[in-house]
Specification:
Phage tail protein beta-alpha-beta fold, alpha+beta, five-stranded antiparallel beta sheet
């Protein structure tokens, strides 16, 4: 942001307007570069862009100039919203620290996260240094090799514990971390050919400075050994039955979703084939997709009777009631068919803990929106070995433990118009084979 402000000061408002005018230059390259330069300016260019867009809309000028200005404005505003939900993680720079309390003080000063010491105490001896290092890396570095010092997240706090630290190969990127949870090598011989299968489990997590949705998609893209051999990658623990494994995972996930539990935070399993007999190390490369809800807003339904419908972006939402204690929301795509994958998207966009009911006496009751028992029933069919998934609508059940027999004057929940996706690459290199 500071760089953008300095650039704006150097350019001046007239030059910003000059960039806007270049959006209709005869040269495509000039138009495209001007749009990108406006986006680079960020929020500093918003006032001039917004003024131009408003004036052009009022004059009903729908030429490329306006379209590019609108696109630049949307991109800048999306970047600002994304920055608010996924800010840059603080990086640490300090010379060698020798006491745990010194590290804790540095963490609290930099991140405002509370630090608790448990049995180790502030005087515990450590050796750790940092150069532009993210939080989880310095925590792992401080505990690595310690027989009675480890750490964990505990309700948004850093908690040090007097237990052995389990060092795992890890990749760090800002507030995010990918770790190798387990590695198992199976070698077999059929008198002619020796083969090896490497089963690995990867897990991704993040520090409390960011709050993505609870699920994430982890993708293993490339795997090589120390001889440069490119390994075959299959998802699941059984390389010979990859499709059935994926179907099983889908059933497992759907059952958990129906119970209101998102299990995608569990380690992801992969099987690697083609490992030479003389291989000693393996390197794993991939990415994790984290999602952040944007523009969550309250949706209010006054004097609910059942049968009410609302348009919420790309979804139509219908409220139904079987009695005063059972209210359900059904989500259906406004255009096109609703897929089972949409269920997970709704979970990311819905603030399930923000359900509120106002009773006939004006009292507020906090509740939840949990997946209805029959939400995902019979959504998986295998035809000629191919998985086909269909669903009519996706249902969520309001639950208000304190409401009892009171009539409801208002129902309220929160829903996000869109999601911001953060792609985090990872590299776990030269991991020793078991």
């Amino acid at each position: 942001m500071l760089r953008a402000v300095l650039l704006l000061l150097c350019l001046g408002q007239d030059d910003v307007r000059g960039l806007i005018e270049k959006l209709e230059d005869d040269s495509f390259e000039v138009r495209d570069r001007a749009q990108k330069d406006l986006v680079k300016l960020g929020e500093a260019a918003v006032p001039a862009l917004r003024t131009f867009v408003d004036e052009a809309r009022a004059s009903k000028d729908r030429g490329e100039l306006l379209l590019r200005a609108e696109a630049a404005l949307r991109e800048i505003e999306l970047a600002a919203k994304s920055k608010a939900v996924c800010p840059d993680a603080p990086l640490f720079d300090f010379k060698a620290l020798s006491k745990l309390g010194e590290l804790g003080d540095a963490i609290e000063a930099k991140t405002k996260l509370p630090v608790e010491y448990g049995a180790p105490g502030r005087a515990q001896a450590i050796t750790v240094a940092a150069t532009s290092a993210p939080l989880m890396k310095i925590l792992d570095d401080a505990c690595r090799g310690q027989e009675a010092l480890t750490w964990e997240w505990n309700d948004g706090k850093v908690l040090f514990k007097a237990e052995p630290h389990l060092a795992r190969p890890s990749s760090y990127s800002g507030a995010f971390r990918v770790r190798l949870a387990s590695l198992r090598l199976t070698r077999s011989t059929d008198f002619k050919v020796r083969s090896s299968v490497l089963a690995c489990a990867l897990e991704a997590d993040h520090d409390p400075t960011v709050k993505p949705s609870r699920d994430r998609d982890l993708e293993l893209i490339r795997a090589t050994d120390d001889k440069g051999t490119l390994l075959e990658i299959r998802q699941g623990d059984d390389p010979e039955d990859g499709q059935q494994q994926q179907v099983f995972n889908r059933f497992r996930i759907n059952r958990a979703l129906r119970a209101g539990i998102v299990t995608q935070t569990a380690p992801s399993l992969w099987s690697l084939k083609g490992l030479p007999a003389d291989a000693r190390k393996v390197s794993l490369y991939g990415q994790v997709r984290f999602r952040f809800p944007l523009d969550r807003a309250d949706v209010k339904i006054e004097n609910p009777q059942g049968g009410e419908s609302r348009e919420l972006g790309d979804y139509t939402v219908r409220l139904d009631a079987s009695n005063n204690k059972r209210w359900t929301l059904s989500f259906r795509k406004t255009k096109g068919s609703t897929s089972p994958q949409a269920f997970e998207e709704i979970l990311r966009r819905l603030d399930a803990e923000a359900a509120v009911a106002i009773d006939e006496d004006g009292m507020e009751h906090r509740g939840t929106l949990a997946p209805a028992p029959d939400t995902m029933a019979a959504n998986i069919v295998i035809v000629n070995g191919q998985v086909q998934e269909t669903v009519d609508a996706l249902g969520f059940l309001f639950q208000f433990p304190t409401l009892k027999a009171k009539a409801i004057k208002e129902l309220r929940f929160r829903f996000a118009d869109k999601l911001f996706e953060k792609l985090v690459p990872f590299a776990l290199e030269d991991v020793e084979l078991p």
